[in-house]
Amino acid sequence: MKKAFLLSCCLCLSLQAKYQPVPLDNVAKSPICLTMPSSGTNWLLASLQFLTHRPVKRSITAIPGKVIDENKAAIYHAHFPSELISANRNNKLIIITRNYRELLLRYAKYNPSKTLNLEKLDVEYWIRWYRDMLECFDFWPSHNRLLITYEDLLLKPQQVYEDLLDFLDEKRDLLDTFLENLGTYKEQTLRLYNRKYRRAGGSVSRGTDVLFHTMQVDGELIEQIDQMMQKDIPQRLWEAYLQHYCTPVDKENMTRKKL
Questions:
Q1: What 3-state DSSP class applies to 233?
Q2: CB-CB contact of 108 with 117 (8 Å)
Q3: Distance between CA 82 and CA 162 in Å, rounded?
Q4: 118-130 pLDDT per residue, tens
Q5: CATH code assigned at 82
Q6: What is the residue range of 112's domain?
Q7: Rounded to whole angstroms, how far apart are CA atoms 137 and 233?
Q8: Which of 54, 135, 149, 220 measures 20 to 30 Å from 212, CA to CA?
Q9: Of 86, 131, 65, 105, nearest in space to 212 by CA
Q10: What are the pLDDT digits (tens) for 194-232?
């Protein structure tokens, strides 16, 4: 038990060592995107950069033809809440979450052995990471925070981008053109992303199939994941942000049944 705990701590420190505190250039005006990995981070930032002309302080594969206005407050990105020590609650905070089942199964499946193995994945660490993000969002003033989901980003793009632009006090001038060419822009950025990160395996995106990994495992494993999440996530956070994911899965019709 002690060995597992120490290994977990080492993993936590090694991952967070890659991410330094976000160096905000204009504290009050710089919005921040806080995301879990594999939750649409690159696409979200690339599309926001295209629609708002704001600089993005993260290495991304951008949409070709973008125009950047360096006089506008930049959009910053963070993976860990601990990166936000130079921010304050006057910053606008955008968080994107993803179905926790899909997230854990994606990382359990695409581990170095390429097999589905939760035992080789530090599940407790990932759950703590998810919990810390939700606690950070829950702590932020309601008027200065916006939560979007990976699923809505894929399935309800118009509503998501309208909400994002309104939240950032940006005009919708480019939105219609962007939505009309959404497929082309996605294909372009995905191709660039796969080229840039080919050594790491590139993207494992499955288009708009938001239950791709869930549909490949049995119900017993899904129940195991649900139980681990409910055990380690405070009830108020669970009910506010995650409970809607905890639904029976109808594999025959490839849909989620509402409770």
A1: coil
A2: yes
A3: 29
A4: 665 677 888 999 9
A5: 3.40.50.300
A6: 19-205
A7: 14
A8: 135
A9: 105
A10: 776 655 555 656 567 888 888 888 888 888 889 989 999
